[in-house]
Amino acid sequence: MTDFSQTRAAFDLPEGVIYLDGNSLGPLPRSAAERVARMMTQEWGRLLIRGWNEAGWYVQPRRVGDRIAPLIGAEPGSVVMGDTLSVKVFQALSAAVEMRPERRVILSDSGNFPSDLYVAQELVAALDRGADRGVDRGVDREPDLGLELRIVAPEEVEAAIDDSIAVTLLTEVDYRTGRLHDMAALTARAHAAGALTIWDLAHSAGALPVRLAEAGADFAVGCTYKYLNGGPGAPAFIYVDPRHADAARPALAGWMGHAAPFAFDPHWTPASGIERMRVGTPPVLALTALEAALDIWEGVSLDALRQESIRLSEAFIAAVAARLPGLPLASPREPERRGSQVSFRHPDAYAIVQALIARGVIGDFRAPDIMRFGFTPLYLTLVETEKAADLLADVVLTEAWNQPEYRIRAQVT
């Protein structure tokens, strides 16, 4: 039985704050500051460059990846850390496209996170430019050599998977509404059509049970600063199914992904397995903070986490509906169809969220009209959840949000 009062005690939460934004940035683990300080003084400070060997900095990306693997249902040795999520999306997408050279279409959906779509758009454009240069130089090629990014509505993804698809690029949990894709079903459909799959787990890892190996997913990527609580800018991870690990070749290669990085060979030879997905020098400070955060997950049942997340989110929806029956729910009503967040729509959503924050309830806003609230049982209680619903209702009913200071848009919303 997972003791969520024990995990709550492991976080340094500000007094009087109800934190419903762990889906955007997790709070500070109490042990992280001391762990990073010790790394800086005892490892960096005393060992200097010897820390790469003696303190294990060089192998840290694999070591941390192996700790994340159980949280996403991945095989040991199939996950490595480093860089940002967009970099990992690019690596996975470029590798998958190369593995299906006879296919022309990348399939995604309109609920995907924009950064993933940007990566796909620019990869398509770069390959098109390269193909055009080939024509300019008199190189023979088929006229349809270029890739296409095909974007459909989330509910149309399954029907859109056919034998033209090279790879599907999908975020399991919609960042705005929390709508949850059926990973197992869509992966099976893609494989039946001969396509590969890439799953973005930014809003899944640490929020609900993920079963990559069971579903047969080909690639997956994710960040660690949301539900995994690794801190702002914490490094991303990438998963490659072991059956692809020695075939996948990312277009973005770096010296840490070389088979012999310290041979300084001018020609890239990929390392074996998941190591080839490393790029540059790993962010040791950030990985150290993440390791402290991952300690909290020891002994946590992901099934129990999911059950408690549903209990909290259902209580929040019911409480809001009782006080604000006309407030549109943007998330799926059935809990099994959403992740660990709940979103509502309101034309003045930004101002309402700012007024709530002023009252100690931290959620966030997503354009154009979404108020988004994350439910993280590691540190959130039912009492806090119900109080947050009451304060939301009070802000809306009294129009407390209708103040000039709440309408001023900050750079980060």
Automatic annotation (TrEMBL):
Reaction(s) catalysed by this chain, per the record, are: 3-hydroxy-L-kynurenine + H2O = 3-hydroxyanthranilate + L-alanine + H(+); L-kynurenine + H2O = anthranilate + L-alanine + H(+)
Keywords from UniProt, A to Z, are: Hydrolase, Pyridine nucleotide biosynthesis, Pyridoxal phosphate
Q: Which GO terms describe its cellular component?
A: cytoplasm
Q: Which domain of life is it from?
A: Bacteria
* Record pathway: Cofactor biosynthesis; NAD(+) biosynthesis; quinolinate from L-kynurenine: step 2/3; Amino-acid degradation; L-kynurenine degradation; L-alanine and anthranilate from L-kynurenine: step 1/1
Which InterPro entries has this protein been placed in?
Kynureninase, PyrdxlP-dep_Trfase, PyrdxlP-dep_Trfase_major, PyrdxlP-dep_Trfase_small
Q: List N6-(pyridoxal phosphate)lysine occurrences by residue.
A: 226
What EC number(s) would the UniProt record show? 3.7.1.3
Pfam families in alphabetical order:
KYNU_C
Question: Which Gene Ontology MF annotations are present?
Answer: kynureninase activity; pyridoxal phosphate binding
Cofactor names from the entry are: pyridoxal 5'-phosphate
Q: Where does pyridoxal 5'-phosphate bind?
A: 85-86, 113-116, 171, 200, 203, 225, 255, 281
Biological processes, Gene Ontology terms: anthranilate metabolic process; L-kynurenine catabolic process; L-tryptophan catabolic process to kynurenine; NAD+ biosynthetic process; quinolinate biosynthetic process
Q: What does this protein do?
A: Catalyzes the cleavage of L-kynurenine (L-Kyn) and L-3-hydroxykynurenine (L-3OHKyn) into anthranilic acid (AA) and 3-hydroxyanthranilic acid (3-OHAA), respectively.
Assembly with partners or alone = Homodimer.
The cross-references to PANTHER family, in alphabetical order and at most eight, read:
KYNURENINASE (PTHR14084)
The family this protein is said to belong to: Belongs to the kynureninase family.
Write the protein's name: Kynureninase
